[in-house]
TrEMBL record:
Signal peptide region: 1-19
Keywords assigned: Membrane, Signal, Transmembrane, Transmembrane helix
NCBIfam families: DMT_1
Amino acid composition bias (Basic and acidic residues), ranges on this chain: 302-315
Species this chain originates from: Streptomyces similanensis
Top-rank taxon: Bacteria
Name of this protein: DMT family transporter
Segments of this protein annotated with the region Disordered: 284-315
Amino acid sequence: MIGLAACFALLGAASNAVGTACQRKAAATVPAGGGLRLLFALARHPVWLAGIAGVVCSAMFQALALVNGPMALVQPLFIMELPFALFVAGLLMRRGLPAAGWWAVGGMVGGLAMVLIAADPSGSHDQAPMVRWIPALAVGLGVMATAVALARASGSSLFRAAVLAGAAATGNALTAAMLKSASATLETDGLTAFLTTWQTYGFAVLGIASLVLLENALQAGSLAASQPALTIGDATVSLLLGVLLFGEHIRTGVWLLPELLGAGLILWGVLRLTRVVPHAQQTLAGEEAPAPASGVSPQLARPERSDGHTDGGAG
């Protein structure tokens, strides 16, 4: 069952990568905006709708993974979405990963393997009592609301991108937790029970909210600012929810050292990958990369959005 869950999780990561690449391509073609207005503008683009189809397929694979394995195993595997997304977008734009990019991918894969082997997630319940759900939702939604408030108050696009991505990551983790419960209800009690449990509507509403936060994070600043918070945040919050909500077990004690080393490798790989891949932001967005100004390193050249502003600068 664990192996099946891992396979479904990787398929979900790959599907989400395709969806993310399409969403980023669409996000680069609309003027900067916020909230639901941005979502309505994106909905007019067929490529964005194709991206949503990828996200829907990813959710189906994710649900299958979550009913077959612990959340602390399934969600960290979605870290592989970033290299999958760069690979897919690179194929579409005929841009291969440089050697340094492959080293970064190797660091992510190695770090992820180290974390999962050391943590050895096991023992999962499909449902959690409300006495656990209430504090989890209160803290998670509070973190998301605080992140949005900080983003609105900040004048830095890098900071806005990072905190909005962190809020989206928290929402994604909570969505996964509710999806796990709802999927288990569907499997054991049938469609009627699935349609009457609050988690079904919870993951739908929170999933849309997380999507809005993600789109705004992508518009707010560079990939190097948003992707680490999105990648590491989702895995970390999901692991905590797996343990605190569903009674999953991970090894601690001496195993914390390789777990922390693995997490450090993942973070290094994510940061490295978003910096060493030539024009990673444009590659993921499906744009032609502009030529950098004389004397400016390609890695430091900031992509121009369709509204005439550059990503990664002060807002």
